[in-house]
Predict the structure of cysteine desulfurase.
Amino acid sequence: MIPLNPDGTLQLDVVPGLFDPRTRLLAITEVSNVLGTENPLAALIALAHQHGAKVLVDGAQAVMHHPVDVQALGCDFYVFSAHKLYGPTGIGVLYARSELLQTMAPWEGGGSMIATVSLTEGTTWNQAPWRFEAGTPNTGGIIGLGAALTYVSQLGLSQIAEYEQTLMRYALDALRAVPDLILYGPAQRKGVIAFNLGQHHAYDVGSFLDNYGIAVRTGHHCAMPLMARYQVPAMCRASLAMYNTTEEVDRLVAGLQRIRKLLG
């Protein structure tokens, strides 16, 4: 596990020492789902390859916020879920380098993933990627993901990224003016803002915001070790996307200021 600096960035100086002859895979997120930290993938991928390790990148929190070029990154595997990209639930994408797919055996059996089946000769697998897509496909999910990709491509990921970063800067500046608000994560981030209001539990703050018509997520965000790192039971998380506005940010700030007056 790569340790964190206080602002949520990786302690890059210790990473080389974490590799040993048994290291086979570096699994790393591109953007943190809690802090919004954007990790320096190019340097980490190059380092892993120097040590003979493959790299799997979790891009679920990145693909909707900026263009991704897996060839330029040089990663071996890249994964993301459709619902993070305005698509349906229940479907995702696994990119893998072709030469790796050709050497990998399937882990699950089902229709369409075999080439031949013989009682005497055994089974041979279909070519990649079909050997990894066993059974009846999620046809509706595939169509929905395709529509989402078309929609985002028409808008332009570069334009989306520019708008979201402008909105993020506005939100961070506005939230810093709220007394007793604790912000977690680096100054430069993508998509999310994690915070707590004084010593009040995130669930209480989130409940008040919900009553004001403001939706945030509260809890440990599937990241209990990170909560332990910051010595808190939970955090509030506001998510910013291409459809959010500065007016909505202002409503969040006003709601937090109102909660502070009510709870003290």
Remarks:
- The radius of gyration is 22 Å.
- The helical segments are 41-50, 70-73, 98-101, 139-155, 157-176, 202-211, 224-230, 246-263.
